[in-house]
Amino acid sequence: MAQFLHKTISDFCSSSTEAVVGELSLASGYDVKGTELEAWSTEVEIIKRSVAGFQGDVVMEFTVPRLGKRIDVVLIIGAVVFVIEFKVGADSFESQAIQQVWDYALDLKYFHRPSEHAAIVPILIATAATAPPLSTFPKARDDRVFDPVCLSPNDLAPFLRHMLAQPLGQPISAHNWINGQYWPTPTIVEAATALYRNHSVADLARSDAGAANLTSTNQALSEIVERSRAHRRKSICFVTGVPGSGKTLAGLNLATQYLDSSSNMHSVFMSGNGPLVEVLQEALARDASQGARRRILEARRSVQAFIQNVHRFRDDCWRDEKPPVEHVAIFDEAQRAWTLEKTRDFMRRRKRIPNFHYSEPEFLISCLDRHDDWAVIICLVGGGQEIHTGEAGIGEWLCSIGRRFRDWRVHISPHLNRDEYAVAEILHGIPNEVVEDQRLHLSVSMRSFRAEQLSQFVHQVLNQDPGAKEMLHQISQKYPLFLTRSLEKGKEWVRGNARGSERFGMIASSQAERLRAQGIHVKAPVRPVNWFLGDPDDVRSSFYLEDVATEFHIQGLEVDWSCVVWDADLRFRDKTFQNFRFRGNKWERIRNIESQKYQKNAYRVLLTRARQGMVIVVPNGDKTDWTRSPEFYDQTYAYLKRVGLPEL
């Protein structure tokens, strides 16, 4: 049963207000309060007055899956989709409400198939406000989403006539529009929030293939958990996937299935990515406290049991030798767990534990191995994202299993045998039972709904692949990419492209220390929660374009529009990229192969964080400052131009 109301304009206008409100109440699927019934009555009366005489359709309470909200009214008349948000009783047009209706329109444009080529007009109606008369026709971008219009109730009818007098294309079939596919691509914050609210993982996939892929992987993981419990055995799984395929989403989805801490199926989602954990915890806590009317501190405590920092889990297990409460542990970006050397050094220096003799993978496995009956570890693994020294890779997990935990069953994606993971030889050498399952590989990219091939393009650019130019041509049809020497132009570009609540921000390499001359201090501490979750009026948020996020802050997270500022730490010279770090008062060449890889991966992360578009700023340098000589930047800029990036 549809949880919205749909009628032709003729039927809508001939129905009594009470009948329409009654149908809305039945369709809603939840207990409707008196205030909501009154608001619906007001909306129905205004719509009936305004659309009388038009040919078209009315849809009320249409669900926007990605945002988890409902549009008050959608009018489908001629070639136009009018998206209407009512603020009943409001006597002013608040910026937050304007942003809300704009988000609805953009969400339909990006993710609702029948809306892809339609003209979409967002309208905000404050029922007690007097709106100034429209002096100009609302503007639209190339995607035919118009700027929001603020109207008083009496202005709606003349505005509809005004818009429909314009040549805006072919009439839209209301039946096709209502029954069309919805392909959402949520951010990781949106996805985590939706899953925590008990949404299905399939609801969050942007295509049938993506939904099927995620559902299949989820089924495989659930089967492993259930069988491990039933047969009282211990299992470790390795889930692989193409960049942006939803490995983290798959892990979060499984964790939300087993949230009950009193059950022996209780699970925990863990990551060594501190900013990701901090942002997800706060986003879920804010959403939970608002939805359930709980205090924010109580909500934070609940969420922190669900998503944890892997290093804190490690420290807790060291202090307490009992089995952890969780039988299922999900490790995101498991290849980034620490080596024996790094773990031992950290525990000695920071925790004053001199006798720690385990790599992080070995110790984490030992924690779950404390259970007498069963346990499951799920490792979500990716390639080409290592940006820290001391990351052990997948090999250490497998070596630890083969060395100390031989009774554990190993479940792998067949892709783990590929060169990019470099563990095929280890896999063949461990004594454990190894089970291959194709369902443990996620093959459909979902990260960027505008440019699924963005990761490939970035890889080609960083490796001087001549195919980058052709790939850019394919990408740029839907994903704008620009180049400039001016930081101010770059900032202006991202500001100008963002609409509604779309987030934009400035990002740079953690080694980009000479950007400080332009007011960009990469060593200044950034609080990820403020940067990623702050409102546009929060000076600490990404919107202000003052604080810069580095690869360490933004890995695993994303913005809609990014301004990437490229310093002289990675510079193009002599037909290749050369690696530098700034020490003391001069640049030093990086000779260590491993450190070069980390730096290239840092730029790989920076260049794949924008969901909708990106501008790259390569400064001019300064002839009077030998640490910012123009020659450090000019060849990089020239190379990116040769790749085909257009200049602002």
Topology, please?
Blueprint: E1 5-8, H1 9-14, H2 17-28, H3 34-51, E2 57-64, E3 69-77, E4 80-87, H4 95-111, E5 119-126, E6 149-151, H5 156-164, H6 174-178, H7 188-196, H8 208-230, E7 234-241, H9 247-257, E8 267-271, H10 274-291, H11 296-306, E9 307-309, H12 310-319, E10 328-332, H13 340-350, H14 360-369, E11 375-380, H15 394-404, E12 409-412, H16 424-429, E13 434-436, E14 441-442, H17 454-462, H18 468-475, E15 481-484, H19 487-497, E16 504-508, H20 528-533, H21 551-554, E17 559-565, E18 570-573, E19 576-583, E20 586-589, H22 593-606, E21 610-617, H23 631-643
Parallel strand pairs: 4-5, 5-6, 7-11, 7-12, 7-14, 8-9, 8-10, 10-11, 12-13, 15-21, 16-17, 17-21
Antiparallel strand pairs: 1-2, 2-3, 3-4, 18-19, 19-20
Structure commentary:
With 648 residues, the protein is α/β, with parallel strands linked by helices. It folds into three domains: 5-178, no CATH class; 188-309 and 325-342 and 365-442, Rossmann fold (3-Layer(aba) Sandwich); 454-643, Rossmann fold (3-Layer(aba) Sandwich). The protein contains 23 helices and 21 strands. Strands 7, 8, 9, 10, 11, 12, 13 and 14 form an eight-stranded parallel β-sheet that branches. Strands 1-2-3-4-5-6 form a six-stranded mixed β-sheet, with helices on both faces. A four-stranded parallel β-sheet has the order 15-21-17-16, sandwiched between helices. Strand 4 (80-87), helix 4 and strand 5 (119-126) form a beta-alpha-beta unit. The protein is globular and about 80 Å long.
